[in-house]
Structures are given as C-alpha cells and as structure tokens.
C-alpha cells in the first residue's frame, strides 16, 4: 500500500497549514481549520494513521475521505468525527473539519492557491486506498 505523509503546523486562531508528500516528494500544500479539541466541523482532525480513499460525498461529489476508526474518524459514522474529506477550498473558514489542497500557499492571506488544480491532480493520483500519516507540529 502506498504511504503519504501530511506534516502540518498550526497557527493559533488562524488555521493549520501543511505539506502532503509521498516518499519525500511534495504532492501539494494544504489548509485546514485550527486545532479546536477535535470538535466536529470546527477542528482539524487529530494526528495519527489514517486510510485515505476515493469517496463520493453528497455535498462535494467525487472527493477523498480519511478514516481511522481507532481515532474516532469514519466516513459516515457513527463516530466522533465523520465526513472528514479532502476537497477544494482556499481558506480555513471554508472548511468544516476537512482538508483542502493547493499548489502553493497564498502570498497575501492565510490560505492556498489553485486548490481545484491540486485537487484534480490528487484525484488522478489516488485511485485506491492509501495509508496517510498526519503529523502535527
């Protein structure tokens, strides 16, 4: 199974920003909500080992979902967190506990640029389940 790593750094009160890599090669940068005690819809998900797989969301259509039942994160519940997706967005406040990819960080504001392009590339790359390790700093 392929293994991706998301290494992030939180900016308190702003958001969480990271880099998604595979074997040390950068796939994209990411933006998420700030850590808020793992509260649904307003916090990034906890660090840990996940499965990342293609998913069809009623709200976002084709996307990627992260799952780790041992961490209380499942695709559809029941669990502490569900529907934690990777989908296009540019700013932390556009996300409800999900992760958005970008080609680069926005130079003028806390966010990412070219999210749809980065998302399309990820969807072309991830066609079957992969392991995802999330590291929070």
Throw out a few tags for this protein.
single chain, 137 residues, mainly beta, L,D-transpeptidase catalytic domain-like, 8-stranded mixed sheet, two-stranded parallel sheet, 12 strands
SSE map:
Blueprint: E1 3-11, E2 15-22, E3 25-32, E4 48-57, E5 61-67, E6 73-74, E7 81-82, E8 85-86, E9 99-102, E10 104-105, E11 112-113, H1 115-125, E12 130-136
Parallel strand pairs: 1-12, 6-7
Antiparallel strand pairs: 1-2, 2-3, 3-9, 4-5, 4-12, 5-8, 10-11
Short description:
This protein is mainly beta and 137 residues long. The protein has one helix spanning 115-125; strands spanning 3-11, 15-22, 25-32, 48-57, 61-67, 73-74, 81-82, 85-86, 99-102, 104-105, 112-113, 130-136. It has one helix and twelve strands.
Describe the protein.
It comes from Ferrimonas aestuarii. InterPro entries: DUF5675 (IPR043732). Residues 15-127 form the DUF5675 domain. This is DUF5675 domain-containing protein. The chain is 8% helix and 46% strand. It has 137 residues and is mainly β. It has a single domain (3-136), classed as L,D-transpeptidase catalytic domain-like, CATH 2.40.440. An eight-stranded mixed sheet has the order 8-5-4-12-1-2-3-9, with helices on one face. It is globular.
Named at the architecture level, the CATH assignment is Beta Barrel
Mean pLDDT: 96
What is the number of helices?
1
- CATH-derived topology: L,D-transpeptidase catalytic domain-like
Q: How far apart are the first and last residues' alpha carbons, in Å?
A: 26 Å
Helix content: under 10%
Strand content: over 45%
Strand and helix order:
EEEEEEEEEEEHE
Domains, number: 1
Query: If you compute it from the alpha carbons, what radius of gyration comes out, rounded to the nearest whole angstrom?
Result: 13 Å
Task: Report the uncertain regions.
Answer: none
Which structural category fits the helices and strands? mainly beta
Q: Count the beta strands.
A: 12
